[in-house]
Amino acid sequence: MANKTWTRQEEEVVKEERRQGTEVADIAAMLGRTASSVSGKIRDLKDRGELIWTDRQGNEVNPAESKEQIRKASHEFENVALKAEIKDLEGKISDFKTGVTIEPEWDDEWVGPKEWERAEVDGRKRIDKAVKRGRFKVDFEKGPVAICAISDQHIAKGTPCDFSRMREDAELIRDTEGFYAVLGGDGVDNHIKHRAAMISAGSGPDDQWRLFDYYLQLFGDSNRSESKILAVISGNHDAWTKEMSGVDYLSSVVANNKLCYAPAEARLDITVEGQPYKMVMRHQTGRFNSSLNQTHAVKRFYEYNDEAFDIGVIGHHHEAAIEMFIRHGLKRYAARPGSYQITSPYAHQYGFGRSIPTCPTFVLFPGERRMIGFADVRDAVWAWGNVIGK
Q: For the whole model, what pTM was predicted?
């Protein structure tokens, strides 16, 4: 049947018959049209608002609401289906787990309170170590005694280092009763940090450390049972090995000789027949240094330091100096030991004068707080033999 235009009269027939519940096929037969054509016209009339939407039971419905209901019903159906699928998968996983057990051998569990507690304990130990390391109690049952401050040996073959004076001073301290030494760092040249200087040196670090080990033995008998060295500290040249490798080699050498060791600074609480003295020896300070007054750094260190001392010695600058000064109403000493390295390419290039190894020495008396400072260990030995010891 050829398509033909719908008349208004035919549309009215469709609307009336649908309101009465007439089936589409009957309306189509009544108008001489196909059922599909009548169904299309019904939809058209509904969209134009001339015919209401009804459900299968003839109840009026809102098309927009119907679509939303359909969408919700569809989502609900999908959710139900998805939940069912998830439950099925969980069951399969459960079945799988019942057949396989996986237990890690290491559980990297980090618990904040426990870790903080460990950090506190470790922190307290490290603070205690930082405060107490480098502190030594030295008790002399018989006095007087003489303490020699030696620093900056810079042992290195092939350099202008006064090996003869170094040996003679060590043997002089060893062989003079009542004399003892504190070593203030830079025992070896050890240019491990500066490749150019190491290449141009006449000896390598290994050979230098061997000589230093022998030098330590000069202060005691062949069995190393009685050494005249009270303590050894490290200097910046010594510390280069640790900086470059993480190994404090000086610590090992000193331990092998059964001596006391501390990095950078030693504090000695000395008693001579019960009379107390405090001595501090550092290799260097990062502040207070003066080219015009070498003892200035020691005196400023006294003033800005945590605690007072009777004798303060700082090495590193290779400049020999000693000064008696008064602080808090008491006589005290400040000293710089000089160096056995008479000169070096660095010193020559930058105009520094030749060094003098003086080994400042301090005689401490029992019974009263009395100290005598000597610029050189040899002067102290002369006074000891001719005046003090008699």
A: 0.69
